Amino acid sequence: MLWIMQRITHFTATLVVLGILIATGSTASPLPGRLRLRPLASSPDEGMLQVINGKFWGDVCYQDWTSENANVACKHLGYATAEGTHAMVATSRKEIFRGIYLQDVHCNGSENSLWECDNAVVGDYSSTCDSLHVVWLSCTNHESATDEITTVADETMEPSIQVVRITDSSVALDWQRWFSLAEQELPQEYVISFQVLFRPAGDPSMNFTIGAQVPGYFTYGTVEKLAARTQYEFKVEAMRLLFDRPGETAGPTSSVVTAITLCSGPKPVSSLTVEVESVNQLNVMWQSPIDEDCPPEYYIVEYKLISREHCEDGSEGGLDGTLRVVAPPALLTNLHAYSRYTVNVTVVNTYGRSSETQRLVETYEGVPRGTPLTITTEYHSSKDALVAMWAPPACGERNGEITGYTYMLLDVETDRVIDYGTTQLPIVHLLGVDPLYKYKFLVAARTVAGMGPYGAASVAGQLNIAEICGVPNPEFATRIVGGEVTGKGAFPWMAQIWNVLRGTKYCAGSILDDHWILTAAHCIKMKNFTRKDIRIQLGDYDTQLPEPQQRVYDVAEIHSHVGFNTDIFDDDIALIRTSDPIEFSDYIKPICLPDKKTARSLLRAAKGRSGTVAGWGDEEDKTPPRYLKQVTLPVVDRQTCKKSTNYSFTPNMFCAGYYEAGHGDTCKGDSGAPFMVRENGKTFVTGIVSWGSPEGCDANNHYGYYTRLFKYMSWIKKIHPSVTIIKHT
Predict the structure, then answer these.
(1) Residue tagged active-site, from 671, 693, 698, 720
(2) CATH number at residue 110
(3) Domain-embedded: residue 484
C-alpha cells in the first residue's frame, strides 16, 4: 500500500492560525470582500458560495441562511435573482472544504451587496455549524458581475517538481515553487489535491500508477515501497473535486522527472563458525555476502554472556562487548572461561545493516582467577584445634568446576609452615595448633586445569588466660632446677619497666593478661612517674642484644595503691595498663594469679619448700647481669623476719631468703618482680619484691621483703574487674 509523507506549508500554517482565531471566538471586522461561485458542475451560474477573507477563500455556512440572503448574494455576483439555494451535503470523504464564513449574516432582500446586510462579518462562525453543509447557490439572468469570477479553466500554470530525497525504497518529490506561485495568483480552493504518478523508466508503453495522493495545501509527497536500485519516472497532477461526478485534473500535468533508488541494506553473512582459541578467547569466521553494486563496508561482531560458569544462569545478561572489523575473522578476547556466549555478526554498508547471524558457544575450563571468599577461622573446644572455612571463588572467577582446595598454615613470626594439605570440601580441621600464636591461613581453589591464587586470613591467638598462664616455654621448662642463669623463655611473664628519660630499666613486673602488668608501688611513687615517663618491655632475655621476640608497649594507665607509704613501704603494689594489647608467644605469656585462698595456701607451703624470684637485678659487684637470672628462696617465718630488721614489718609483708650469705637474694633492679610458687605444672605469683636490708643484698641474717599478695586480691579486682583468677585444686 503506497502512503504519503506530507508536510504543512506556509499556506497551511496560515489556515491553522486563522482557524485558532476563529475557534476562540475572535471576531473580525466587516470587510469589503469578494464573492464567487465555486463551480462544481457544468453551469458557471451555480456552485458553492465562497467569500475571500483577506487572502484565503472560504465556504459560507448554510446555518440560518435565508432566501433574502441568496437574492442579495446573486445581485452581489451580478445576477438578477437567485433561482434557488440549498445546503450541499458532502457525499464523498475526499471532498475538502476550507473555512466557514458569514454564518450569521441577515439580509432583507433590498441590499445590493452582502456587505450591506446585518452581521456581515467575515471569519466569524459557530463551532456548531457543520462544515460539510455549505451554501449551494443557483443564480439567473447574468448581468455585470460585482466581483471577479475565476474558474480553474482560466489557469494554465504547469507545476514544476524536483526530487528531494531518495532511499532504497522511496522517492520524495517537492513542488513548492509551483505552489508558491499558485498561492499568489490562483484561487486556492480550485486545487483540491495532488496525486503523484510513477512508472519504471525505459518502457513508454507502461502506464503511470498513482503512488501518492496529497491534499492541496501540501507540497511534498513520497512514493514508498519501490524496488531498490531501479530507475523510475514521476509526475504530479493537480486535482479538483466535482460535486456530481468524479474528480478531474485541474490544469496541465507536471513534466516528468526520473530518479534511481539506492542500494538496500546488505544481506546477512553465511557459514558463521565460532571456534574456542583458549579458555577466554573465541575466533569468529564467516562468509561475506557477494554484492558488487552494494558491497559491505564493515562487520559488527557482538558477544553476549548467557551464563557464567554454569553457576548463575541468566544473571549476567546484557551485551558484553562489540567489535567492528572490515573483514573476517574476528578474535574475541578477555572472555570468561567455562561460560556460554552468543555471538552475533551483522553486515553494515552505507544503506543499512543486515539481520543478525547468531551462534551459541562455550569456552574451555581454566585455572581459577579468583581466590576463595569469606575465609574464617575459629578455635574449637580444645586449645590445639582450629577450624578453617571458606566459600568458593566468585562466579566468573572460577574458570571451571572447582575440584578441590589446597591449604597451608604459616607461623606469622617465622613464616614456618605448620600444616599443609588438600581437601575437596571448603572446610578443614587443623589439630595441634597452639592458640597462643598468630598464624596465617592460606587456601587456593583448583579446577582440572590447575590451581588458582591463594587467599589469606589472619588467625589471631585465642586468649584463654587460665590455659596459657604460668606455663613456660616447653623447650626450657625442665631447665629450671636452681641455677642462676635461666633458660630463654623460662619466665615469659617477666616484664621490664624502663625510665624513658634515661633509657634504662629500673624495675620489674609480671604479666597478668593481655593489658595488665603487676609491680610494686614504690617503682612509681619514689620518682612520681606518670604514664609518659615509663615504658614496658617484654620478651627480653639478653640485655645486651636485641632479640626478635622482644616487644615494647606504651603505658595507658597507672594505679598505685593509695595506702603506699614511702617510709615503711606498706601497701607496696601497683597495676600498669598497656596502651595496646600484648601479643603472646612462647616468650611472652601471663603468670597465674591465684585467688585469695590459693595464694595464702601456696605461700604457707613455701615455708617448707621455696619460691622463686627472677630478674635483672644487680650482681654482688653492683652491676646488672646480661641474662635474666633466677634465685630460689625459702619463705621465712614471720617472727624471724621481724627480728632481722629495724624497719616496720607489717601484716601485708612476708620475707624470704637465707640466714647465711652467699646463697642468693634479690637486689636493686629486682623491685616489682614476682615471688613465684610452682604447683602442678603452673607458676603462680604470691608476692612482689618490695625492699631489702640496708646492709646490702645477700647479707648474713638479713632477708628480702615482699608484698603479701593475697591481702590485695580485692584491690586488684576493683582496679581490673575482668582479671582472670585461678583457683588451685
Answers:
(1) 671
(2) 3.10.250.10
(3) yes
